[in-house]
# Entry
Amino acid sequence: KMNQERVEKLKGTIVKYGDTIQLLHVKSHKFLTLRPSILSSTERDCLRLDLDNDCSGENCQFVVTPGYKHVSDGHPVLLQENIHITNAKWRMYVHVSKSGRETTREVNASSESTRWKITQFTAAEESDTHNYLRAGDAVWMFHSEAEVFITADTYNKLPWSFTGAATNHAVLSLQLRNPADGFQGSSKGVFVIEYDDPTQGGICRWNRVYRFRHLCSGLYLSLLEISSTSDSPRRRFSI
# Structure
């Protein structure tokens, strides 16, 4: 409770080099936390970083320090600047592993520094606009007349799809809803709204281009043109 009160008090203030901050993961609403007793999974000389609901300890407090020596403590942190993020208690840097899987790397705590670049996802004045649809929001696609959700699954689990064929091992189907049971959205039908640049956030506005990314598979909703026939010369599309 005291932590939340302090967050509300400091909201809107400028972050400066040397300030102590907490890093909140928006989707899980958990805080980045250093585990001093657990080693990294990929680098045995590093410590584990994790997400935790508990934000009261010093393990989830980090200090923003300049990425270059010509910037000193007390200066405002600006967009596109390179910074270091250091755990305030253990004096270890938030670090990207040198090795990992083909498409991912581990973020851990190390005595070796990693420079991070500050980019803006959502403007500060739009961060609390919860009454508006925003890029990054998760939504369901619901057809009000047919009372069905659009869902996606792997091709070998579904007997049919809109397209009748697999697209990168994922297909779309319909999930019927019983009005008596109320809302019954499935996790397989969750899509994330994105701008054409997925690193950009903010309120969704008219006449902007957006994409819908399936949360579970990471694939994007798309239109496929169906070949016209002599019986139906009009252009037809399938999702």
